[in-house]
Design goal:
CATH superfamily of the largest domain: RecF/RecN/SMC, N-terminal domain
Strand content: 15-25%
Strand order of the largest sheet: 2-1-4-5-6-7
Number of domains: 2
CATH architecture of the largest domain: Up-down Bundle
Helix content: 40-55%
Distance between the termini: 21 Å
Number of helices: 13
CATH class of the largest domain: Mainly Alpha
Structural class: alpha/beta
Number of strands: 15
CATH topology of the largest domain: Glutathione S-transferase Yfyf (Class Pi), Chain A, domain 2
Shape: globular
Order of helices and strands: EEEHHEEEEHEHHHHHEHHEEHHEHEEE
Length: 390
């Protein structure tokens, strides 16, 4: 898999830019604030996953413009591919693959798309940050191995917005209140699919994260990742569904059917109805779930050292890369955002080994001095302008 060219118009601080990449290691050099990370973010956008920073259209579109236009050309699955993306300031991204609009991501529409995995110093928030960071990790991972997951997550988000609107309107509208049951059914159905997708990717990530962490840390540590559902009952359900403890066990083993998830979510919505109406928000559901990362049985967010947290974050990204490579049958494009400056010698060595064994890599740094690997092409970025050297 390779990205050969990238053309940007009104993206972040780039009014216009055209960049060519080599098949090997591309090093993007520049002072902070010149647009290095923006270039990597643009590659993420043309891979169909959107910003790895979780940015909105308003943030990605250059000031004074209404939309950003991006075009990436390269090869994937042995075929040439061109991906065009239009990011609107008001929200939403329109994708065309080989000049054909992609309205609904599917296995066929994404088979020839470029796939990128980004490593950043900010990855530490996956361990230290809030639940939304870990949910994003699973949702993006699910999309990489099963492209339809992106559309399914969008459907859940649509239902969530509709239900939230009804909850806010219910205090003054009996009609809104009367339609909640219908939307609860839709919420439970769409939510069960999102949870199923997350559990599937989590099941694949667990052994890879453990393997990578033991290698990076040089210790036979025990790592576990457990899905924490906000909608599990604290006591047996009055509707006769699985008790919270039993379903929790099924969640961790992955041996839970989609119908069971749907039924449990529907039951949770019924139990939370009064609270939801009072607050005007959906207080339970996949949008409030978390993944607990445990190191030697303790919550890594609270009890792991800074070094252990960095090793875990790096291992998670490495495992994500391994997952994509196994699923696609070829290495994804690696995006390294000034990552070496944040790693000690041992962790840097493991990352170098992974890059050396991978395909195309596009990395950023403030200087090329002391770079630990042979570079195929160096690009200099200054104030949204890119100049190639070699």
């Amino acid at each position: 898999m390779q990205l050969r060219g990238l053309v940007l118009t009104d993206f972040r601080n780039y009014a216009e830019a055209s960049v060519e990449f080599s098949p090997g290691l591309n090093l993007v050099v520049g002072r902070n604030g010149q647009g290095k990370t923006n270039l990597l973010e643009a590659i993420d956008v043309v891979s169909g996953l959107g910003s790895h920073r979780g940015a909105t259209g308003e943030a990605m579109v250059r000031q004074g413009a209404e939309r950003a236009v991006l075009s990436g050309t390269g090869s994937a699955a042995g075929r040439d591919v061109r991906v065009d993306a239009e990011v609107k300031r008001t929200g939403g991204t329109r994708l065309l693959v080989n000049r054909v609009a992609v309205e609904r991501m599917s296995a066929s529409s994404s088979a020839g798309m470029l796939v990128a995995v980004a490593f950043s110093p900010d990855d530490l928030v996956i361990i230290k940050g809030g639940p939304e960071e870990r949910r994003r990790l699973l949702d993006q991972g699910a999309t990489r191995v099963r492209p339809l997951a992106a559309t399914e997550r969008q459907e859940f988000d649509r239902v969530l917005r509709q239900r939230t609107g009804l909850l806010k309107a219910a205090s003054t509208s009996q009609r809104a209140l009367a339609t909640l049951d219908v939307w609860d059914e839709s919420f439970a159905r769409a939510g069960a699919v999102v949870v199923r997708n997350r559990l599937a990717v989590l099941d694949k990530l667990r052994p890879e994260v453990l393997r990578r962490y033991r290698s990076v840390a040089g210790l036979p540590a025990e790592i576990s990742m457990e899905y924490r559902a906000s909608w599990l009952p604290e006591r047996p359900s009055r509707r006769g569904f699985l008790e919270g403890s039993e379903l929790a066990g099924k969640l961790q083993s992955g041996a839970v059917a989609e119908d069971e998830l749907r039924a449990a979510l529907l039951d949770a919505l019924a139990r939370a109805r009064s609270r939801d109406l009072e607050r005007g928000v959906s207080t339970v559901g996949p949008h409030r779930d978390d993944v607990e990362v445990l190191l030697e049985g303790a919550d890594a967010r609270l009890f792991a050292s800074q070094g252990e947290q960095r090793s875990l974050a790096l291992s998670l990204r490495m495992a994500e890369r391994d997952l994509v490579a196994a699923d696609r049958g070829e290495d994804p494009i690696l995006l390294l955002d000034d990552i070496f400056s944040e790693l000690d010698e041992t962790r840097r060595g493991h990352l170098v080994e992974m890059v050396a064994a991978s395909g195309q890599t596009i990395a950023t740094a403030t200087s090329s001095a002391g770079w630990p690997m042979a570079v195929s092409r160096t690009l200099t970025v200054e104030a949204g302008r890119v100049v190639a050297h070699g």
